[in-house]
Amino acid sequence: MSVAYSGPGPATTLLRRRLPIPIRHGAGAKVAATYIAILVLAAILAPLVARHDPNAINPLASYAGPSSGHLLGQDAAGRDIFSRLVYGARLSLLGPFAVVALSLVVGIPAGLIAGWRGGVIDALLSRITDALLAFPPLLLAIVIAATFGAGFRTAIIAITVTYIPLLMRVARGLTLVEREKTYIDELRCQGFSVGRITWLHVLPNIRRGIAAQATLSFGYALIDLAGLAFLGLGVQPPTADWGAMLSEGRQSLLINATEVTAAAVIIAVTVVAFNVLGDALTSPEQGQ
């Protein structure tokens, strides 16, 4: 007696394999990806999404409550809170993106070299990494930002310095594992150069682990940059930024907590969304 196969066909399996990893996973990752996509789109189209100028001051409407024209009400200066959240998403997302991008550009090559070469180079780079990781990241970033002056660019550089060692260590560990695999010996026997093996074979095979760490780092960088802005070392007022909104709103927390609550909630939800995507990248693939 024959039993009909009811599993996914070749076309379905191929489609799943070609889809981005988070989309192939559970509902949580799909919701997180959708939320992030909407957030990014809102930030890009901020002039169309926000009804008001985020920096327009109206002292007569100080601490005004939610209304049809102001969905989340207005802050101490009479500025529309919803508009500041939307415009604030630009720098709040651009900052972590820049941190992760710069960390990848510096950390990944250093990690590949340390993991592949070993010896003195590995020892030297590892000691530098250990020295940087010995300091609490946010504390080190505060010292750097305070030394070179407050500002958005300084905050990005300060946070990047603290994230490079982490990504470098991840790349180094993955490279050490990959270097011992059989296909590496076969490539060596075929006469492939170290550069070609590293960049065309090792790097593509460890990209999933690097992508997962980069996604998680994005969320943590968002928190760190918001923390620097909260302390007055990041984005400077009156520029709209989620961390700056926390700092401005805390001064009137007992009078009107809408600004602080809105900024805190959107930061928390965004960080959780990126963490969910990071978990999706590290978890086993489904549906194969």
pLDDT averaged over residues: 85
H and E order: HHHHHHHHHHH
Beginning-to-end CA distance, first to last residue: 27 Å
Question: Would you report the number of β strands?
Answer: 0
Low-confidence stretches: 1-23
Number of alpha- plus pi-helical segments: 11
The radius of gyration computed from the alpha-carbon positions, rounded to a whole number of angstroms, is: 23 Å
Gross morphology is elongated
Strand content: under 5%
Q: How many strands, which pairing sense, and closed or not: the largest β-sheet?
A: none
Oligomer: single chain
Structural class: mainly alpha
| Helicity level | over 70%
Structural write-up:
By secondary structure, the chain is mainly α. 70% of the residues lie in helices and 0% in strands. It has eleven helices and no strands. It has helices at residues 10-18, 27-44, 46-49, 81-117, 119-133, 137-148, 152-179, 182-189, 194-230, 242-250, 258-282. The longest helix is centred in the middle third of the chain and has 37 residues, at 81-117. It is elongated. The two termini are 27 Å apart. The relative contact order is 0.15.
Please summarize what this structure is:
This protein has 288 residues and is mainly α. It is 70% helix and 0% strand. The protein is elongated.
